[in-house]
Amino acid sequence: MHSFSAASYATEVKSQHFRLSKQARSLSTNRIHRLSDDEAFAEFCAVRFAENGGEPYCPWCGHTQVYSIRTRRKWRCKSKSCGRDFSATTQTIFASRKVSFQKLLLLIAYQSWVAKNINAIDMHCELDVQYKTAFVWCHKIREAITAHQHTGTMRGQIEVDGGYFGGYIKPKNSFPLRQDRRRLMRKEGKRKCVVIFRERNGRSRAFVCSESEAAHKAPEFIEPGSVVYTDDAVEYNRLAARYVLHKVNHSERYSDGDACTNWAESYFARLRRAEMGIHHHFSGDYLLNYANEISWREDRRRHPANENYEEMLRIALNRPGIAGGHLV
């Protein structure tokens, strides 16, 4: 009879999924639940004003000399040209919020820890807020992540692939009556193409557009000299003029030596499970944000949970295009 021991279990766990590792347990929502309102406020400010060592500065003009209005948890800029009041949430996606800082930290914790996403219905139950409040917060975080994912350039080995999401045409019960949904004239109008650009062992960036449009966008953020891997779609042929292009015919094989799009397919697998198992439906108006949120999760799938929590909080509090001036 096979004897089961703690040592044999530890050996098996080493080969199991990252979500079973110690790093995946480095974030505890119990710790956040135990925080007082003052402790949650201090943790929030430490990330919000990290550029100034956790000390508040004016988000409007960037001046570091401020007055403290302790009765209202606000500050006033000492600059004579500014002099405006501000709080820890001013110029962030949480501006004018009406809930505690503890719930804001819990919102980020739940969003950063889940593998494929968390829907607004579950979030409003976890945080004990209205469904509309949870819905708006979740989408604001997705918008911030999208802005973050679309910064900088990409280089090295990059895989490009497209997949269709949203919309659905229910097939007929009888096989002879079913339509060929691959034909353009019979495609559901709400069904849109998501194109992913993904560095091997690096970052990714998603677009909601046709593969032809994606090929035209590539020179805007992919550095010259990079190696690009695609399927045999003719839309990507134009990339050969600027990059080293390798293509693989998926109707014949999954990969051709080093040429494959397995990293891109891994992203689509997570996005499709998020659509089918978590949300059940992606609205076309928000598909870009859903797609880039999943790309962020794929990029950081093997990062410790506490690092993902801190990174998502930084993204939410320093969304590009929202944050104020520089420190002076």
UniProtKB/TrEMBL annotation:
ISXO2-like transposase domain segment(s):
153-299
Report the protein name in the record.
IS1595 family transposase
Q: Which SMART domains match?
A: DDE_Tnp_IS1595
Q: Which InterPro entries match?
A: Tnp_ISXO2-like (IPR024445), Transposase_Zn_ribbon (IPR024442)
Kindly indicate where the leader peptide sits in this chain: none
- Source species taxonomy: Bacteria, Pseudomonadati, Pseudomonadota, Alphaproteobacteria, Sphingomonadales
